[in-house]
Write a structure and sequence with these properties.
The complex is a heterodimer of chains A (178) and B (456). In chain A, helix 2 crosses helix 6 and helix 3 packs antiparallel against helix 7. Chain A has seven helices and no strands. Chain A has 178 residues and is an all-alpha fold. Chain A has one domain. Chain B is α/β, with parallel strands linked by helices and 456 residues long. Chain B has three domains: 122 residues, Oxidized Rhodanese, domain 1, CATH 3.40.250.10; 142 residues, 3-Layer(aba) Sandwich (Oxidized Rhodanese, domain 1); 136 residues, Rhodanese-like domain (Oxidized Rhodanese, domain 1). Chain B is built from 16 helices and 21 strands. The radius of gyration of chain B is 28 Å and the shape is globular. Classes of the chains: A mainly alpha (178), B alpha/beta (456). The interface between A and B is medium-sized, with 12 and 13 residues.
Chain lengths: 178, 456
């Protein structure tokens, strides 16, 4: 439902910043993420965007729900304590966490470089933001009960965002070669 | 003349009408009286001598219809001696007012399990003149015919007549006792009332609690991932923060009593001498219609505990001692207080425990339908089940109460409640294996069994 309310505001912003290509692209990507009613999209595209949006943020939504329930339900709190221990010995060993940090730093640098070279739009900016949020999260939010679920959620967002970047990059190249 | 005759006829007719109306009133009132007699006298009274003569006969059953606390040992309702008539079974009138799923089936099953059947002569006794009547009405509806009523005050007044109570029945307290404790302020001795449940948010506590009660979050005494009790120094800190010393009378309760039993067992292990749990939990307090408050009471700390923690170290044991118990099967038993499905390894019972099975050599001691329930040890109103029933159940399971018994479950909550009941019943050499199946299953080198045990 939020998408319906946000859409007109974002479209208005697009018109206001018509001359600024950078912002135009940024907001258009956000509109693509949120919209379910933009006129020039076919129904299949709309549904696809919605599904991709849900998929992209599903991990984060799950983590928020678990974190919220961890203070209300003992079973959830204990499950998260158990998963924390399990993750620390499997997916999130100190080595992997360090590796992940370096990858996020490299990702941030690459995204910022692309932005500086004006080779990326909103998708790249969003990826850079997610990278930075990921670094902050890994470094400072270890006390959260659903910490590892948040990190996994952020990684899912990032991976799908990179897929978006590739998609837009190849689409742009294809249209340039035509 | 004609007029005169008409007047006589009119008078005669009027007399007839009045007479018939009077007769119908008389018959109606006599019917009402009979009905009333029927409803107030569902069971005829029985004399003490007759009751004494028939106790123990196969076709007689003596039923205590009072509260579970009175049955356990508390002298309530002006009775001279607490406890129940030796040989009596319990079927409390309170159980009839409980709201529960499949209540009728549960009550019927309870009657059957206690040998209260319609082919027997059933003596219902109480001390307030109401409980036996309520149960008599219920039994009448179930097809019982031979019902007798008895006032237990007569029995209790005669010291020659045998009454039984549990050796440590004072550990489980009735709401009236807690109310008296508040009123007389424990005769000047220190006391604390705690509502125990999981979480800092204390939803149950904020909804309503016993006046002056303070909330204890179970995370104050245990921590994951094993969910064992905290280190002794940490436990001492917990006691100091909550204002508990070895001499404090501590009363614990909760909407679900299991967390209260968990903390009670830990406090006894630490060395608190007088630990009580409200029998039947917060529901019992509300049903007794005592005051309730919603104000959040803050913890009042004390500077010293009064003993080195643990003062009662044998009350809770760990993995090494649990292994010793399993190694000495002739004199000791590790008793599994989990559901049958957990015991045979069909399920683990918990989202956060993946392995299934049991420590090799552990004996099943009953529990309930799942990891949150303990129906085999509780009555329908969540009070403690009749001790004789519990011991008979364990005898069938092959558990000798004279042995050294250590109870365990998944993480020590259900087993703590059963340990407390065993303590109420006066069993010696009893303990809680704190780590339970969670700790045991974490080390793959610990021997594990699955499936139904081999009966030798």
């Amino acid at each position: 439902m939020n998408g319906v309310w946000i859409l007109p505001i974002l479209l208005k912003r697009v018109n206001q910043t018509r001359n600024n290509i950078f912002w135009k692209k940024t907001i258009r990507i956000l509109v693509l993420s949120f919209s379910i009613g933009k006129g020039d999209l076919t129904m299949i595209k709309k549904i696809t965007y919605l599904l991709v949006f849900l998929l992209q943020f599903s991990g984060i939504i799950l983590a928020i729900v678990l974190e919220n329930l961890s203070s209300k339900k003992m079973g959830v709190a204990r499950y998260l304590t158990y998963k924390k221990q399990e993750f620390e010995s499997t997916l999130f060993t100190p080595f992997i966490v360090h590796l992940l940090m370096y990858l996020l730093i490299v990702g941030t640098i690459v995204c910022l470089a692309l932005l500086l070279l004006k080779k990326g739009g909103g998708v790249v900016l969003f990826a850079a933001l997610v990278n930075i949020i990921g670094i902050i999260f890994i470094r400072f939010e270890k006390e959260l009960q659903a910490y590892h679920f948040f990190v996994l959620g952020i990684l899912i967002v990032l991976v799908i965002q990179y897929v978006w970047i590739m998609y837009f990059y190849f689409r742009k190249r294809r249209s340039a070669t035509k | 003349m004609v007029l005169h005759r008409k007047a006589i006829l009119f008078l005669l007719f009027s007399c007839l009408l009045i007479l018939s109306a009077a007769c119908s009133n008389v018959s109606k009132s006599s019917n009402e009286k009979a009905d009333k007699k029927d409803s107030t006298n569902l069971a005829e009274s029985i004399k003490t001598e007759d009751l004494k003569a028939n106790i123990g006969k196969n076709d007689w059953v003596i039923v205590d219809t009072r509260s579970n606390d009175a049955f356990n040992g508390w002298a309530l309702d002006g009775v001279e001696r607490g406890g129940h008539i030796k040989g009596a079974v319990d079927f409390s009138a309170n159980w009839l007012n409980v709201e529960a799923d499949q209540k009728n089936k549960k009550l019927s099953d309870t009657l059957k399990s206690k040998g209260i059947t319609s082919d027997k002569k059933v003596v219902l006794y109480d001390a307030n003149g109401k409980d036996a009547q309520s149960v008599a009405e219920y039994l009448k509806g179930e097809g019982f015919k031979n019902l007798y009523k008895y006032d237990v005050k007569e029995w209790a007044a005669n010291q020659d007549l045998a009454m039984e109570n549990y050796p440590n029945y004072e550990m489980l307290v009735p709401p009236a006792w807690v109310n008296d404790l508040k009123t007389n302020k424990n005769n000047g001795k220190p006391y604390k009332i705690f509502e125990v449940s999981w979480g800092d948010e204390a939803k149950d506590y904020k909804t309503g609690h016993i006046p002056r009660a303070v909330h204890i979050n179970t995370d104050e005494v245990e921590e994951g991932p094993v969910w064992n009790r905290l280190q002794d120094q940490e436990l001492e800190k917990f006691a100091l923060i909550n204002g508990i010393t070895t001499d404090t009378t501590v009363v614990l309760y909760g909407s679900d009593s299991m967390p209260a039993f968990r903390v009670a067992v830990i406090l006894k292990y630490m060395g608190v001498k007088d630990v009580r749990v409200l029998n039947g939990g917060y529901t019992a307090w509300k049903n007794a219609k005592y005051d309730v408050e919603t104000k959040v009471n803050s913890k009042e700390s004390v500077p010293t505990f009064g003993a080195t923690v643990p003062a009662n170290p044998d009350y809770i044991i760990d993995l090494a001692e649990a292994k010793e118990i399993l190694a000495n099967k002739s004199t000791s038993t590790l008793v599994d207080i989990r559901s049958w499905d957990e015991y045979i390894g069909k399920i683990s019972g918990y989202d956060y425990i993946k392995p299934k099975g049991r420590p090799a050599g552990a004996v099943w001691g009953h529990a309930g339908s799942d990891s949150s329930n303990l129906e085999d040890f509780r009555n329908i109103d969540h009070t403690m089940r009749n001790g004789s029933d519990v011991l008979a159940m364990w005898e069938k399971d092959g558990i000798n109460p004279d042995n050294k018994l250590s109870f365990y479950c998944g993480t020590g909550w259900r087993a703590a409640e059963v340990l407390f009941y065993a303590d109420v019943l006066g069993l010696k050499n009893i303990s809680l294996y704190d780590g339970g199946w969670n700790e045991w299953s974490m080390d793959s080198s610990n021997p594990v069994e699955k499936g139904e045990p081999n009966k030798k």
